[in-house]
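The data layer described in this paper is built around a simple, fixed record for each protein. Such a record has a labelled line for the sequence and another for the backbone structure tokens. For reference, a complete record is included directly beneath this paragraph.
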Amino acid sequence: MRDDFQLTPELMLRAYMTGIFPMSESRDAPDLFWVDPERRGVMPLDGLHVSRSLARTVRRGGYDIRINSAFEAVVSACADRAETWINDDLFELYAHLHNVGYAHSIEVWDDAGLRGGIFGLSIGGAFFGESMFSARTGGSKIAMVYLVDRLRRAGFTLFDTQFITDHLASLGGIEISRSAYRSQLAEALDVEAAFTRPIGPASPQDVLQRITQTS
């Protein structure tokens, strides 16, 4: 983006609705740039892959799932790595969008504190996953299980992961064409869904039963 160009939260939301999103080269990079992948990563909401070992971890419990209780801590943890695309400008934009109800985090807590989490933006029936982290083994995978369950129960139809990593692919993430993505996005934006919609308590067994694709 040009040095004299100011990315506002409103423009950022409009960009997501057209299929593009901003990134930075690094934590200290002063500029942002728009990204419009030719191949888009998505997590099919009916295709999450839960391995036997992950299912055992989920069933074992010993953690609490919280929504939006430590949003900025999740974003900070996602950016706390050698290579990150989250600079100070993006951090502030995400924080603002969280304060006005568009950006959310799902968090896994245990006795030692924040174990893992995922954050992203929601518009209509689309959830735009930004990043995830694990402070302890399995943290991000547990968060993914509960996130997909929440998205399904809250009426979402699209879970955009932007790109596909080996980690996301192991959980069932796939790539689709830009045109297929934009078609799914247009449909999702017409859906009424709410990330914070009350969906009631759910035991680990209940969540796993709703996630039908296991191995």
Summary: Strands lie at 21-24, 32-35, 39-42, 64-67, 103-110, 113-123, 126-134, 158-162, 174-177.
